[in-house]
TrEMBL record:
InterPro entries hit by this protein: Aldolase_TIM, Coproporphyrinogen-III_oxidase, Elp3/MiaA/NifB-like_rSAM, HemN_C, HemW-like, rSAM, rSAM_sf
Gene Ontology terms, MF aspect: 4 iron, 4 sulfur cluster binding; coproporphyrinogen oxidase activity; metal ion binding
Family: Belongs to the anaerobic coproporphyrinogen-III oxidase family. HemW subfamily.
Chief location of this protein within or outside the cell: cytoplasm
Function: Probably acts as a heme chaperone, transferring heme to an unknown acceptor. Binds one molecule of heme per monomer, possibly covalently. Binds 1 [4Fe-4S] cluster. The cluster is coordinated with 3 cysteines and an exchangeable S-adenosyl-L-methionine.
UniProt keyword Cell inner membrane present: no
CC annotations in GO: cytoplasm
Organism lineage string: Bacteria, Pseudomonadati, Pseudomonadota, Gammaproteobacteria, Cellvibrionales
Organism per entry: Simiduia aestuariiviva
Compartments where located: Cytoplasm
Protein name (database record): Heme chaperone HemW
Any one biological process term the GO annotation gives: porphyrin-containing compound biosynthetic process
Names of required cofactors: [4Fe-4S] cluster
Keywords associated with the record: 4Fe-4S, Chaperone, Cytoplasm, Heme, Iron, Iron-sulfur, Metal-binding, Oxidoreductase, S-adenosyl-L-methionine
Domain Radical SAM core: 1-234
Amino acid sequence: MTTLPPLSLYIHIPWCVRKCPYCDFNSHKAGHSLPEQDYVRAVLADMDDERAAIGNRPLVSIFFGGGTPSLFSADAIGALIEGAERRFGFAEDIEITLEANPGTAEQQHFKGYRAAGVNRLSLGVQSFNAKQLHHLGRIHSGQEALNAVDMARRAGIDNFNLDLMHGLPDQRPEDACADLEQALALAPNHLSWYQLTIEPNTEFFRRPPTLPVEDALADIQDQGAALLAAAGLQQYEISAYAKPGKAARHNLNYWQFGDYVGVGAGAHGKISRREGDDWHIERRSKTRLPEHYLNRLAPGERITGHFRFAAHSDRLAPAELPLEFMMNALRLTDGVPESLLAARTGLSLSALEPALGRLREQGLVEAHRLQATALGSRFLNRLLLAFEAD
């Protein structure tokens, strides 16, 4: 590693109108009023602590995730964007994405977000089907999802992603394709199309719904891939499809093992740091519960301290880096060049041996690129296990 990788910023807004039964993210049901101003102050203080450790590195992207960031006012989002620019600086073409729930979408909010600097939206549609939306515990209707797209465009935000799920309870292939066709009719330049998985610590885990069988899931995947390709959306990651030039730059930075600061309750970050002639990579997570996070900043106090909001921080051992790097790189349809391993980790290609050689002999990884073959992409977990530290 000779130069620092690009730097992104993730800002977590932890509140939702209600918790969805499949969600294992750090999200919490909002009360009658949100502590918006206090939370903005705390996140800005969190940025101060991170900036003191990172130094002068401009941001290439910002992502507001949740939770439901669209519960926050445009003024609050604007204050966080302005605060980030003041502390870190922005690359000239910075991408600033905000996740929005169609059930909380308002025209004036979208216009305000655009004026504040948001230039990309990610709309959590998940389905247009009323029955499926009910199964998923979503607060919006299919029509409200359509309205949200229209509002975004009228607010001047043409760059948007639609989140859409498949493999839903009792879903048939024709139902999944109907959902996808309705999404494609809206002409998004990016679509995240991913299969529902049952995660621990969710309502679906405690009370599992009936999901489609493997053959039906394979049919959904095959038919959906054909629809996406016909619509001009190219797959560039396991569940991400985009028109040319519209891949999510924030997520690409994750998958290409770039750096990212995580601020807000439960946020995670990964930072490359230099000490003398040595480089190392740190991962840091922030305290999860919003009330605990806010308590790190006493009312009226401006915090200046070292990672006062952190719950956990550790330095990755060299033996951990091959798996950490490959579990991101192999998600990408085109993988990454071999040279990126040294650029992002300081490791030589020999650090991936003998696993890499074996996988190439088996036809699972391409010969001169860190990229899963068509066959290898079907066995991604097997590929990753090969790079686990002994």
